[in-house]
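Raw record, unedited: Endo alpha-1,4 polygalactosaminidase
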Amino acid sequence: MRVLLFRLTASCLLLLSFLSPLYAADWYRPPVSVTWQWQLDGVVNEGYDVDVYDIDLFDSPADLIERLHASGKKVICYFSAGSYEDWRPDAAVFAAKDLGKTLSGWDNERWLDIRSQSVRDVMIRRLDLAVEKGCDGVEPDNVDSYRTNTGFYFHQNDQLKFNRFLATQAHQRGLAIGLKNDPDQTRALVDEFDFSVVEQCFEYSECRSYSIFIKNNKPVLSAEYRKIYVDDVSQKNTMCKQSLALKFSTLVLPLELNDAFRLSCLP
């Protein structure tokens, strides 16, 4: 009986190895206070001495990711999960019925119907691309669209289902995944995401909403864009003091995320 059980167990493990990465056993889990660089536009500056790079999934070639890995860095790959971007190579795949209103301030982006199976199929292919390129994790953007007038009638529970779908699919492929913004759902989703990426939480006094990640030993990758943090050292130091107390990994960056400048609250 023990021999039979061993053979069955071994067979199951062999089967899972053939199915990998769809049944990945583990994935990268960044620690609290991890150092990072976030650049989504322009030629990526590879020279920062940090633990993690967050770069664009489509614009970053596999050899760039290989070089970052060779220098001891992990790589998070960005894509928008909740919006259609008309310049992406897979833009033509989206169905017209799944395209909603234009994003405020972004004329070439439209909200997606996150309830659509077709939209989910596109996201699955993007996660597969992340695996193909060698990304260690992903940062899906626009995953709090239920709070916005998207042109669709979905609600908070629809957003939770979609975000959990993304997390499950990422983990099945051995990818870490970050929860982008979405302050009102952090408690509901913290167990299923490996880190958080937040923008302007100090500017808008939302940072406490993300502390649940720190309490669960998961980092908060924070970005601020206020010019005063660049122009006034005392303002930047005051903000950084708050960030360090919260154990956030905070950067001051240009809104375009093009490496025009970079200030860090971490050593």
